[in-house]
Amino acid sequence: MRPALAGATLAAALGAFGVPAAAVDFNAADLYVYIPSFAAPELETGDRSFVAGRGSQTRWSHALEAEWAPSRYWKTEFYDVLSQTAAQPLAQQSVEWENIFPVLKGPRFDAGILARGDLPSRSPGPGTGGIMPIMSSRLGVETLTLNFPFEGQSGPGAFRGTRSDYAAREITWIDPYAAPALEAFGWPGVIGRWPALAEQTHLGGPAIYGLVPLSRGRMLRYSASCLFGLTRAFGGRLAVFRLEYRYWHGRKTNAPESESELRY
After folding, report:
1. 185 with 147: CB under 8 angstroms?
2. What does each C-alpha distance from 155 to 9, 112, 123, 127, 199 come to in angstroms?
3. Whose C-alpha in 68, 142, 213, 236 is 20 to 30 A from the C-alpha of 201?
4. Contacts of 193 (CB under 8 A, 6+ apart)
5. Residue 93: its pLDDT value, please?
6. How far is Cα 94 from Cα 116, in angstroms, rounded to an integer?
7. Phi, psi (5° rounding) for residue 92?
């Protein structure tokens, strides 16, 4: 899917959602939850499109991706991230490299490690790298996923120390095409220098997740959420939409083959 087409789809969804938002300063990776398991070997390409906000405060992001899983214990992904706002045209923002290593897989609990780094396309700007424990627990139709990123920066404008964040999601899989969910995201700050709780940024609210099988080897995954500022550092509400186009080369069929695909 071309970024423009994905963006047009998300624009229609944003207009229908109709939620006023506070000022937007997030990219796709900031408001995304990673699962710790995947099917392999596989080769995928796709487009992860994202929009948050409304009107002149809307920020669009497109992550054009290529990923390869040479085994069940390693998946590597490259992203070319582009973004735009009402005041700024679409431009390359950064190049990102992510690696997922599942370390535990069970009937009710999965765990893994995600190592990532990104380089900004516009100089000067800091580069970011980090390690993220990712966990997922299942009980019946309920799935709870937790991410705990630890990140550092280097280069012009970099913050000192290690930043700790979190991302959490609970999905009730009553229907894989439209499943109700709850999301929460937080950025407490640099470890050892956390500000008062009221000055930290924390968001949370309801969401809906689903997938749409297309032709052989192709699938759309989507989510829509309304996130509320839980502290005064981020007042108001934020409408968030994500749309992923997934194309598996040579192996996948029309239906999801693994639980990790079904469970986003």
Report:
1. no
2. 37, 29, 10, 6, 26
3. 142
4. 161
5. 84
6. 13
7. -65, 135
